[in-house]
């Protein structure tokens, strides 16, 4: 495939906003060829210990970002990608974006982020709450308890639990911890929709985040009565999130003069409606047909699959009509920590001589299945699916004096595969088939990990044919928004790419993994479903100790006796 720019070709730009950086990709409309890319790392990265503007300490489980870092991606990465591509900007006909979710921020009615108001700069709740801001778990617990007590019809569509990561838990935390900022927040908006607003000057809400993160089902949000029962001040919350709703692949508007100056793109070109990084990748991986599950594996993993029928799947993030592509029910699940777990071990636990993924992988690959004698639970960042509880934490069982670093590393790799198998089996139990898995994201480079997933799930694994899956998916949606294709499936068939059946399960290893998986399930249910709540008690003790330390002049904390009872 030629990757040179032709004078008669048309191009689109996809921008993928990740956890630590944003990537721009220039793509040819006619065949999906990728001609240029550039990455811009966020200046403030993730603020999870201190607020960058004044250095004030943040509580446990917070994760904030600066929205201007997102604009800077447009100012830096898009022009750099254009320069790398050799494409004449006048040949670009559209731009599309995807974002991590639920990443959400409070703004004024005109889209101005509250954290950019001088008098609110030092108020942590005025800033963007990143997807992995997990400090709203108490609010999530109340949201779920009340929904079940009232038999709210929507709760089953989310596997029986709304996550602490989603819009409502974070919004309720905002109200209860900083009511002044809540009152001044005229809009509570996903970063995906906010950056599209910055590009085209028009506020839109995409059906994907509105459905999965905004609890919009059957054309309605949760009732005012339900929200008031949570907290009287929360009754008006829907007014902050409701907005012009648009399907995926639609045109949100035209690029403004200001955004054209940022990006170097022509004013007025099509700006596609925003999307989520995982969901947009299905188009890039040519995986819109039901039964093809896409696992986007990076710091965390999101699992998305289309189905033909509506089903309520226990522990899922949600099922949304048109949430992945029009005409299907889109199902989402996820694991809050995957690559982050492996990275934690390399950076903080592996000794000298083993402190690299390459060294640990090579040593772990030499082991037969089960030789390490370990089973781990993949909850280092809580559990998104199936338990939907971010107060849970990681577990390793079977450690002995003979345990070595590659043993632990392999057990951690396997734990994430076991978590994915739990999700796939939950889909299957509810009548949502998963026939094959297509993997996207940076972890596809680890052949051992990919083979473990094939063996554990006992399904063939395909690999997306692009290293920039979300950005390519956003470019595909931009091509549809620009009118180059009639719909997303048609654009996906031409512009997407995938290598199918790259990894196939080995029957003997799969049988050996069945035995380990059975032990994983026992631990999963014991620690996650009420057998023993020790992990939750430990989290309570930790939080109490940290709060005491924050208020202790000597910096020494005594744990209140009542939390130990």
Automatic annotation (TrEMBL):
Q: Could you list this entry's UniProt keywords, alphabetically sorted.
A: Arabinose catabolism, ATP-binding, Carbohydrate metabolism, Kinase, Nucleotide-binding, Transferase
The Carbohydrate kinase FGGY N-terminal domain covers which part of the protein?
11-281
> For this protein, what reaction is catalysed?
L-ribulose + ATP = L-ribulose 5-phosphate + ADP + H(+)
Q: Any idea which GO molecular function terms this record carries?
A: ATP binding; D-ribulokinase activity; ribulokinase activity
Protein biosynthesis as a keyword? Answer: no
Task: Please report the name of this protein according to its UniProt entry.
Answer: Ribulokinase
- Classify the source by domain of life: Bacteria
Give the Carbohydrate kinase FGGY C-terminal domain ranges.
294-482
Give the protein family.
Belongs to the ribulokinase family.
Quote a single Gene Ontology cellular component term.
cytoplasm
> What pathway does the UniProt record associate with this protein?
Carbohydrate degradation; L-arabinose degradation via L-ribulose; D-xylulose 5-phosphate from L-arabinose (bacterial route): step 2/3
EC code: 2.7.1.16
Gene Ontology biological process terms, A to Z: L-arabinose catabolic process to D-xylulose 5-phosphate
């Amino acid at each position: 495939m030629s990757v040179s720019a032709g004078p008669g070709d048309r191009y689109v730009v996809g921008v993928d906003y990740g956890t630590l950086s944003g990537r721009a990709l220039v793509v040819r409309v006619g065949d999906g060829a990728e001609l240029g890319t550039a990455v811009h790392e966020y200046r403030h990265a993730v603020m999870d210990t201190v607020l960058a503007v004044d250095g004030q300490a943040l509580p446990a489980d917070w994760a904030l970002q600066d929205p201007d870092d997102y604009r800077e991606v447009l100012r830096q990465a898009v022009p750099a990608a254009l320069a790398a591509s050799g494409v004449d900007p006048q040949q670009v006909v559209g731009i599309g974006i995807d974002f991590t979710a639920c990443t959400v921020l409070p703004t004024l009615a005109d889209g101005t982020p509250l954290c950019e108001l001088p008098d609110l700069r030092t108020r942590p709740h005025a800033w963007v709450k990143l997807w992995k801001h997990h400090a709203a778990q108490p609010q999530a617990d109340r949201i779920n308890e009340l929904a079940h007590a009232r038999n709210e019809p929507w709760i089953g569509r989310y596997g029986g639990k709304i996550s602490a990561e989603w819009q409502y838990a974070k919004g309720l935390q905002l109200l209860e911890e900083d009511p002044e900022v809540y009152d001044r927040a005229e809009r509570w908006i996903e970063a995906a929709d906010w950056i599209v607003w910055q590009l085209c000057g028009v506020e839109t809400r995409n059906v994907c985040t509105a459905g999965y993160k905004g609890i919009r089902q059957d054309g309605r949000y949760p009732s005012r009565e339900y929200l008031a029962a949570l907290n009287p001040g929360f009754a008006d919350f829907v007014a902050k999130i409701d907005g012009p709703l648009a399907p995926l692949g639609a045109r949100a508007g035209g690029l403004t003069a200001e955004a054209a100056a940022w990006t170097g793109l022509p004013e007025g070109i099509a700006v596609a409606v925003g999307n989520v990084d995982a969901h947009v990748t299905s188009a890039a991986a040519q995986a819109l047909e039901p039964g093809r599950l896409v696992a986007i594996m990076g710091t965390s993993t999101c699992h998305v699959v289309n189905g033909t029928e509506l089903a309520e799947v226990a522990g899922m993030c949600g099922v949304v009509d048109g949430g992945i592509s029009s005409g299907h029910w889109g199902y989402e699940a996820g694991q809050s920590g995957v690559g982050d777990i492996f990275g934690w071990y390399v950076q903080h636990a592996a000794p000298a001589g083993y402190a690299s993924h390459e060294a640990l992988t090579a040593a772990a690959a030499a082991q037969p299945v089960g030789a390490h004698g370990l089973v781990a639970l993949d909850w280092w960042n809580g559990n998104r699916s199936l338990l939907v509880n971010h107060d849970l934490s990681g577990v390793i069982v079977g450690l002995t004096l003979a345990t070595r670093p590659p043993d632990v590393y392999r057990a951690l790799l396997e734990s994430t595969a076991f978590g994915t198998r739990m999700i796939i089996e939950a889909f299957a139990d509810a009548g949502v088939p998963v026939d094959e898995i297509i993997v996207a994201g940076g972890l596809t480079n680890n052949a051992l990990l990919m083979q473990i997933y094939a063996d554990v799930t006992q399904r063939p694994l395909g690999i997306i044919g692009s290293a920039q899956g979300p950005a390519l998916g956003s470019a595909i949606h931009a091509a549809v928004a620009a009118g180059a294709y009639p719909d997303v499936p048609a654009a996906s068939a031409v512009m997407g790419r995938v290598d199918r059946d790259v990894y196939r399960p080995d029957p003997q290893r799969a049988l050996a993994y069945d035995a380990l998986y059975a032990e994983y399930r026992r631990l999963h249910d014991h620690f996650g479903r009420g057998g023993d709540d020790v992990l939750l008690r430990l989290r309570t003790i930790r939080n109490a100790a940290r709060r005491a330390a924050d208020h202790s002049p000597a910096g020494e904390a005594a744990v209140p006796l009542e939390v130990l009872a």
